[in-house]
Design brief:
3 helices, alpha/beta, 7 strands, about 170 residues
């Protein structure tokens, strides 16, 4: 008995589903399109974060940090704390309300405030888009920050992002 590769099964399913839905393929008889992906895998053994303050330098290495720069980057800027790094106008919540992040590093907590509170404005005990590091980074960028540092919140009742990464990668 021949077992098809899972991707072949998925491709067949997608083609069939699009045909049934009445969609027309862009070219030929397939709905699939090929495209090139630029891939980058950093050398995590060589990634370091250095903080220098008043002439004293502190270094962090994997597994305490994870970065994804493709080359060395030397930035010097002040750092500020911005709570959870969330700006959510629809919830009348903004961690950036009274701070100026322009040209600075922003330090924020992971996740969202009140995440163990079922009546939290942030979807109760569920997460919203604002819990993701990507949204926090985009928000910091929109406020003019030059970099984002993300730390585990002090009262967390779950593994930090770094702990989850170590568990997933086995490192």
């Amino acid at each position: 008995m021949k077992i098809d590769h899972p991707l072949s099964i998925m491709h067949a399913y997608l083609n069939s589903s699009f045909r049934i839905a009445g969609l027309k393929p862009a070219s030929g008889d397939s709905y699939l399109q090929t495209f090139k992906v630029i891939s980058f895998k950093p050398n995590l053994q060589k990634n370091i974060l250095a903080l220098e303050r008043k002439g004293k330098k502190t270094l962090w290495k994997k597994p305490d940090i994870s970065t994804s720069y493709h080359s060395n980057l030397d930035l010097s800027a002040a750092a500020i704390f911005a709570g959870y790094g969330i700006t959510a106008p629809e919830m009348e919540y903004d961690d950036y309300r009274n701070i100026d992040a322009k040209g600075k590093f922003v330090l924020v907590f992971e996740h969202e405030p009140q995440e163990t509170n079922p009546t939290s404005i942030f979807n109760g005990t569920g997460n919203t888009q604002y819990a993701t590091t990507r949204i926090k980074a985009l928000n910091a960028q929109s406020h003019g920050a030059v970099g984002l540092l993300v730390a585990p919140e002090p009262n967390r009742k779950h593994p930090s992002t770094q702990q989850r990464l170590r568990r997933i990668t086995g490192e």
